[in-house]
Each structure stands twice: as C-alpha cells, then as structure tokens.
Design brief:
Number of domains of chain B: 1
Strand content of chain B: under 5%
Strand content of chain A: 15-25%
Main location (chain B): membrane
Radius of gyration of chain A: 18 Å
Helix content of chain A: 25-40%
Protein name (chain B): ABC transporter permease
CATH architecture of the largest domain in chain A: 3-Layer(aba) Sandwich
CATH topology of chain B: MetI-like fold
Number of helices of chain A: 9
Radius of gyration of chain B: 23 Å
Number of strands of chain A: 10
CATH architecture of chain B: Orthogonal Bundle
Distance between the termini of chain A: 33 Å
CATH class of chain B: Mainly Alpha
Subcellular location (chain B): Cell membrane
CATH topology of the largest domain in chain A: Rossmann fold
Family (chain B): Belongs to the binding-protein-dependent transport system permease family.
Largest sheet of chain B: none
Order of helices and strands of chain B: HHHHHHHHHHHH
Structural class of chain A: alpha/beta
CATH superfamily of chain B: MetI-like
Oligomer: heterodimer
Largest sheet of chain A: 6 strands, mixed
Membrane topology (chain B): Multi-pass membrane protein
CATH class of the largest domain in chain A: Alpha Beta
Helix content of chain B: over 70%
Structural class of chain B: mainly alpha
Strand order of the largest sheet of chain A: 6-7-8-3-9-10
C-alpha cells in the first residue's frame, strides 16, 4: 500500500515560488496497476521522483507499507524514460541487470539466477553478453525492466518508459509489462501522457492537472487479460478514453 | 582482409621509405659534418643501442618517465574525482590549479636541482609537474559530465557511494581520463628529455647533449632517433590499451567496425562525454 497525502513540492528555496506539485493525495493498493496521466509539464515526473525518494518533498507525506519514504526504499524499483541514459554502456546486459543485486545482499548464485530469470521474462535470454548499445531501443528498455524485476521490488515506478519507442515496440512492451505485472505480483505506478496507453494498462487512472493536483480518479473496469485489438475495440474503452481526453483538454496547456 | 591489411601497411611505409632513401642517397656524398651519412648513423645507432647503453641510459630514462607518469595518473585522477564531485573543493582549488597548469614545468628545474639534487627524483618531480594537470582537468570534466540519470538510477537502487564511484563515475569519466593521459604522455616525454639535458649523469637526453658536446654527431642523431622510436612505441601501447578499455565508448558512439556493431539504433548515450583533447 502506497499512501500519498497532501504532497507538495516547490523547487528552490523560495516557498512562495510556483509549486511543481500542489497538494496531491491518493493511494495505491498492493498489486494494483495505476497510471498517472498528464500533459507534459504538469509535474508528473517530479511527483514520481518524490515518490521514489530521489528528491525530498516540500511538505506532505508518503507512506510505503506504513513507513515514510525519505530515501529510495528497499522494495521499490524505478524505470526511467531514457533507457539509453539509465543503462551503463560499459557493462554487459547481464552485468547491468545484476549490478544492483550485489549491494542488496543477494548471494552471487541467487543474483545470477534472478538475472537469468528476469532476462528470460523480458525475452532477452541469450543476450546476456551483449552490450546495451548493441541492442535496439526496445530491447534496451527491456533490459532496464529486467533490472527492475531482478531487484524483486514490491512496487515498480515507471516514468514514461515507452514514450521514446515506436508504436509497434510500444504495444509489445505494454503486453510484456502486463504479463510481468501478473507473474511477479508487483504494484505498478506508471506515468504516461498517452491516454490509450493509460486506459489499456491500468486498473485505475489518475489525471494530473498542472501544477500537479489529482483532477480525476477513474477506475478502468475493462476485463483482463487485455488484448491490443479486442480491448481497444470495446465500447467501454472508447468511452473511458473520451472521458479522460476531455478531462485533459479542459485544463490549460502547460508548456 | 589480409590483403587489404598488407596494402594498408604498404601505404603507410611508402613515405618514410622514400624519405629515408632520399636522405641516404644525399647524405652518402654530401660530406656535411652536421648531416653524416645515414649508414654511419645507423651503424653508430646499432653500436650504442644494441645494447650497450640500454641499461645505462635508455632504462633510467624510461623508468623516470613511467614513475612520473604513474604518479600523475594516480594523483590527477584522485584529485580530478575529488574536485569534480565537490563544488567547494573545485572553486577553492581552481586558481592554484590554473596557475600550476599554466606554469612551464622546466622553469622549476633549477628549484628541483636545489631540492632533489641531480638524481632521479628531480626529473620525476618535473615530469609530474607537467603531466598532472591535463589528467586532473580532464578527469574533473569527465566526472562532472556523468549522466545525471545514471546517478539517479544508482541512488534509486541504493548502490553505495564507493560502488557508484568505481562502477559509474570512473567508467563514465574514463574517455576523458584517457584523453588527458594521452596529452600527458607526450608532455612527459618532452620533460624527460629536457630535465635530462639540464642536470644529469645519464639518460637519453643527457646522451644526446653529451654527444653533441663531444662532436659525435652520428651518435647525437642516433639518440634523437631513439627518442622518436620511444615515443612511437609508447603511444602505440597507449592506443592499444585505450582501445581495449574504451571499446564500449566507441561502440556506444557507433565507431566500431560494422561486424562488432550488430543491430543498434539510438546511440546518443555517451556523446556528451566524448573525449576532447585538452591543451596542456
């Protein structure tokens, strides 16, 4: 359970400055898949960085399983948008995935097992000895996801992880993520600016309004397992998408 | 492939061979005191450096160079990392670093002689004084240029500071560190020769000057040629090591031969950290 209450973040020392996040309250249940939807500049990345403990909030509270998040917690993993900048090009794929495990107190054998398993789950077995730059963008993001999986987090934070990929690769990775989410029993908090993506993936969509405030909290009761063709053909899908679209349209463009 | 390599090798040799032949033919009949016949130079070179003076002059020179260079690499990287990571240290030390780096190292040879005498330590001191700065400044820039997101990633996975240093900061800065080391290697050879010419009892620099003073011009030329060959060999070794250590960097920038590259797409990763050779 992740509980966020009255979260506020102002960059810089001046408390009167325009906040990047203004009074955000929501909670995410265990094993829930929640998408945070917002246009660019609405503070969604800042929100995720606060939740991950990478930057301190100005005020408000974040509780993960009852404990306040003040620094990156042990059972959380972060997947960044820019895979090419979060992977280490001097390490092989396998080393990239196993790198954080050594400092988590995982034994060498277990780390190797977890690495193989995670790479297998993202469809990259057999690429252990390659380097990230020898892989396509989609495969690089799979490596980043595998690294997060191998870490065995209870909650996975994803910051627009598929935004810079082409459409076909994005669909593949969306399905891969849903598959992983079920198999690994994790909670996923997924940031996106893509309405279809949010509706397709989530149990619940939070619409963020600039400066970040939760403007709308929408349940997505679409049946699972979801399918890129069938789910998106459902009339409910179109309905939800329209609803979210108009919610986003109503707020002023923040660019 | 091998044929292509052979052709490439031959193309490399054409100009040197032509120049040597031209000089050889001209010098054979020139009877110029300052430009003795090539055959004479080669003969004297073989006399001196196969292997009479290797132990007495070549080895001491190389050891001084390597000792000074090693100290500079360790010191330059250490201080470069420290200054790169701490704004306060960087700001506080900047004027001194800029002053020392602008100072021509040979200007301190008289001082080095006073303090360290005419032995090895004064030469090593001069070499360190000239070669430390390019490494330090390049390391500093490299450390500052580490991708923010790689550090965020490390923090989010709770990777301890020492491991971040060893596995993220140093590797990320390594292209710049190598750029600095390459500049410093050239400076190091120059300072080795200069310091040996001023006050010394052995070394290649000493040998070149001594030969000139005793009018052994072929021997002087032999020493000069040896210095050239030494520089070539050291930079050849350097490039080998660099290519090996920085293979990932060339790969990430799409600079590897196609066969090693395979299916790669976006390659903007390490551009930011691409080595730029800093002037000393």
């Amino acid at each position: 359970m992740l509980e966020v209450s009255r979260l506020r973040k102002v960059y810089g020392a001046d408390p009167q400055a325009a906040p990047a996040i203004d009074d955000v309250t929501f909670s995410v249940a265990d094993r829930e898949f929640v998408c945070i939807l917002g246009s660019s500049g609405c503070g969604k990345s800042t929100l995720l960085r606060c939740l991950s403990g990478l930057i301190p909030a100005t005020s408000g509270e974040i509780l993960l399983h009852g404990d306040p998040v003040l620094a990156p917690p042990k059972d959380m993993a972060f997947v960044f948008q820019d895979y090419s900048r979060s992977l280490l090009p001097w390490m092989t794929v396998a080393r990239n995935v196993s790198f954080p495990l050594r400092y988590k107190g995982v034994s060498k054998e277990d780390a190797q097992k977890a690495t193989e398993e995670a790479l297998e789950a993202v469809g990259l077995s057999g690429r252990q000895k390659r380097y990230p730059w020898q892989l396509s963008g989609g495969m690089q993001q799979r490596v980043a996801i595998a690294r997060a999986l191998a870490y065995r987090p209870k909650i996975l934070l994803m910051d627009e992880p598929f935004a810079s990929l082409d459409a076909q690769t994005r669909f593949d990775l969306e399905d891969l993520l849903l598959d992983i989410w079920r198999r690994f029993d994790v909670t996923v908090l997924f940031i996106t600016h893509d309405i279809d993506e949010a509706v397709y993936l989530a149990d619940r969509v939070l619409v963020l309004e600039a400066p970040a405030k939760v403007a709308l909290d929408v349940d997505i009761p679409l049946p699972r397992p979801r399918d890129q063709l069938k789910t998106k053909q459902l009339p409910e899908f179109a309905e939800l998408r329209t609803r979210l679209f108009s919610a986003i349209q109503r707020e002023p463009a923040a660019l | 492939m091998t044929l292509r390599r052979l052709t490439l090798f031959a193309q490399h040799l054409v100009v040197p061979v032509v120049l040597l032949l031209a000089f050889g033919l001209w010098s054979a009949q020139a009877e110029d005191f300052f430009f003795p016949p090539l055959t004479e130079i080669v003969r004297v070179f073989a006399d001196n450096w196969l292997f009479d003076r290797v132990g007495s002059d070549l080895v001491p020179s190389v050891l001084r160079l390597l000792a000074g260079y090693a100290i500079s690499v360790v010191g330059g990287v250490t201080f470069g990392v420290l200054f790169g990571m701490s704004r306060i240290l960087r700001t506080a030390t900047d004027p001194v670093v800029q002053f020392l780096r602008a100072l021509p190292a040979p200007a301190l040879i008289p001082f080095a002689m006073l303090v360290f005498g005419t032995g090895n330590s004064s030469k090593v001191f001069i070499i360190v004084l000239g070669t430390m700065w390019p490494i330090l400044l390049n390391t500093l820039d490299g450390v500052r240029g580490v991708e923010e997101q790689q550090l965020d990633m490390a923090r989010s996975y709770r990777i301890p500071m020492t491991a971040r240093l060893a596995h993220i900061i140093l590797p990320a800065a390594s292209p710049r560190i190598f750029a600095g080391m390459r500049t410093s290697l050239g400076i190091g050879i120059i300072l080795m020769v200069v310091s040996e010419m001023v006050a010394s009892r052995n070394g290649i620099g000493y040998f070149v000057l001594q030969s000139q003073r005793s009018f052994e011009i072929p021997a002087m030329w032999g020493g000069v040629i040896l210095l050239g060959l030494l520089g070539l060999t050291l930079s050849w070794i350097f490039v080998r090591v660099e290519n090996r250590v920085l293979r990932w960097h060339r790969g990430a920038n799409g600079l590897l031969p196609e066969s090693d590259q395979s299916s790669k797409k976006a390659g903007s990763t390490a551009r930011k950290n691409a080595p730029e050779v800093n002037d000393a």
